[in-house]
Amino acid sequence: MILISSVFYIMSISPAALEQQIGAISYEKSARYRKIATVAYYLMFLNYVIYYFYPLSTPLPDFFPWEYWMTAVVATGIFLPSICLMYIGARDAGEETLTPKREHTLYGGIYEKIRHPQALGEVWLGLVIGLYLNSPLLAVLSLVFFPTFYYFCIIEERDLVIRYGQDYIDYRERTGMFIPKRKRSKD
């Protein structure tokens, strides 16, 4: 599922590059790809639940060696800010979250501070679910999301440069990818 989700997501975040090849229909295709990627991504977490009930034999322990409530507290401590970032990012991106539009302009809100709030929130979901399911294996396997999401952001930024040109390059210079940039004094 992660492969299916990744392939369709990569295709969905490059509508401007695709437009150079097939025209304006690229945005409609990208929206379709994004929806397929999203469904596959969340179906992948269904596999986590299936694994919980039918675990594989691995060298890792079946459960974390401490009391479950400790793991649940850590998972909740990660989940709450993550879901907030995802929500705020989706709110500020509007319908473009799932449906890229050619006429859309650069976003405001949280996007004035960081360029990828939704990715920064979403990247933690696999780990959170692995922790809630008390599975060391799922938690470790979820670490694959970190380089994957970073790669997605790099690809998306290449397309945004094609789409918005110098405006995006200037935006990228003044805004952090995942962490807000500190304003430098002009001394």
Question: Keywords, please?
Answer:
Four Helix Bundle (Hemerythrin (Met), subunit A), 9 helices, single chain, 187 residues
Secondary-structure element string: HHHHHHHHH
Q: Give the overall pLDDT as a whole number.
A: 92
What's the architecture in CATH terms?
Up-down Bundle
Main beta-sheet annotation? none
- The helix-and-strand class reads mainly alpha
CATH topology: Four Helix Bundle (Hemerythrin (Met), subunit A)
The level of helicity is 55-70%
Give the low-pLDDT segments. Answer: none
End-to-end CA span: 52 Å
Number of H- or I-type helical stretches: 9
Question: What this model shows, in words?
Answer:
The chain has 187 residues and is an all-alpha fold. It has one domain: Four Helix Bundle (Hemerythrin (Met), subunit A) (Up-down Bundle), CATH 1.20.120.1630. It is built from nine helices and no strands. Helix 1 packs antiparallel against helix 3, helix 2 crosses helix 3 and helix 8 crosses helix 9. It starts with a helix and ends in a 13-residue tail after the last helix.
Q: What order do the helices and strands come in, and which of them pair?
A:
Blueprint: H1 2-12, H2 15-22, H3 25-53, H4 68-93, H5 117-122, H6 125-132, H7 136-141, H8 145-164, H9 166-174
